[in-house]
C-alpha cells in the first residue's frame, strides 16, 4: 500500500473516531437534559394536558445538528443547533423542554398544519403555546433579566416594533 493510501485511511479513521466521540458526548447530554425535563413542573403539566406520560420524552429523537436556527422540530424529531452544546444547560433546556417538545406533542395531536411563514410566526397559535410554555419553563430555570432579554431578542429577531411589539410581548407573558 502506498503512503498516500495509508495516510488517507488513517485520516478517515481519525475523522470517524472524532464523529463517534461527538455522538457519544451529544447522546450523554441529551439523556441528561431529558432527565431534568421529566422532573419539571411545566413539562409535567403539559404531559397531563396532552395525555402523555412523562417518559414520553425518552422516545423522542433529539439531535445536536448544524441547523440555521436555535432549534426545530420536524416530523416528531427535535434538532438543536450544535452551537447550543457549549451554551449553559439552562439555554439547552429552554429549547428542548420548554419549546420543541411542545411542538412534538402538537404534531402528535394533529394540531400542526404545515410550516408557518416567518411574518406570521408569532401569530400562530402553536408557536404562541410553545413560546408561552418555554417562558414558563425559563421562569423555573433562569433569572428574570435573562427571560426579559430573551423576549426582547425574540421580538428583535422577528423585527416587531411599536404597538405590535407591545401586544406580542403581552401575549407571550400573559400566562406567567
Helix-strand makeup class: mainly alpha
Helix content: 55-70%
What is the number of beta strands? 3
What's the order of the H and E elements? Answer: HHEEEHHHH
Number of domains: 1
Query: What is Rg?
Result: 19 Å
Outline type: globular
Helix segment count? Answer: 6
Mean pLDDT, all residues: 89
Report the β-strand fraction as a percent range: 5-15%
The low-confidence parts are none
Largest sheet: 3 strands, mixed
Identify the strand order in the major beta sheet.
1-3-2
Whole-Å distance between the termini?
67 Å
Structure overview:
The protein is mainly α. The chain has one domain. Helices cover 61% and strands 7% of the residues. It has six helices and three strands. It has a three-stranded mixed β-sheet. Strand 2 and strand 3 (77-81) form a beta hairpin. Helix 2 (41-49) runs antiparallel to helix 4 and helix 3 runs antiparallel to helix 4 (125-141). The termini are far apart. The mean pLDDT is 89.
Main traits of this protein?
single chain; 176 residues; mainly alpha; 3-stranded mixed beta sheet; 6 helices; globular
Compact overview of the structure:
With 176 residues, this protein is mainly α.
Describe how the helices and strands are arranged.
Layout: H1 3-37, H2 41-49, E1 62-65, E2 71-74, E3 77-81, H3 89-108, H4 125-141, H5 144-157, H6 162-173
Parallel strand pairs: 1-3
Antiparallel strand pairs: 2-3
Helix pairs in contact: 1-3, 2-3, 2-4, 3-4
Amino acid at each position: 500500500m502506498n503512503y498516500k493510501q495509508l495516510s488517507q485511511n488513517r485520516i478517515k479513521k481519525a475523522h470517524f473516531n472524532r464523529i463517534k466521540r461527538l455522538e457519544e458526548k451529544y447522546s450523554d447530554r441529551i439523556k441528561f437534559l431529558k432527565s431534568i425535563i421529566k422532573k419539571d413542573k411545566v413539562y409535567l403539566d403539559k404531559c397531563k394536558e396532552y395525555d402523555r406520560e412523562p417518559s414520553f420524552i425518552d422516545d423522542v429523537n433529539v439531535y445536536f445538528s448544524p441547523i440555521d436556527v436555535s432549534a426545530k422540530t420536524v416530523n416528531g424529531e427535535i434538532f438543536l443547533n450544535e452551537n447550543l452544546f457549549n451554551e449553559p444547560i439552562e439555554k439547552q433546556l429552554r429549547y428542548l423542554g420548554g419549546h420543541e417538545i411542545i411542538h412534538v406533542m402538537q404534531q402528535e395531536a394533529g394540531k400542526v398544519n404545515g410550516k408557518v411563514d416567518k411574518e406570521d410566526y408569532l401569530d400562530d397559535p402553536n408557536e404562541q403555546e410553545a413560546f408561552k410554555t418555554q417562558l414558563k419553563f425559563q421562569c423555573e430555570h433562569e433569572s428574570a433579566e435573562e427571560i426579559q432579554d430573551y423576549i426582547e431578542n425574540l421580538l428583535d429577531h422577528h423585527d416587531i416594533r411599536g404597538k405590535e411589539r407591545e401586544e406580542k410581548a403581552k401575549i407571550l407573558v400573559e400566562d406567567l
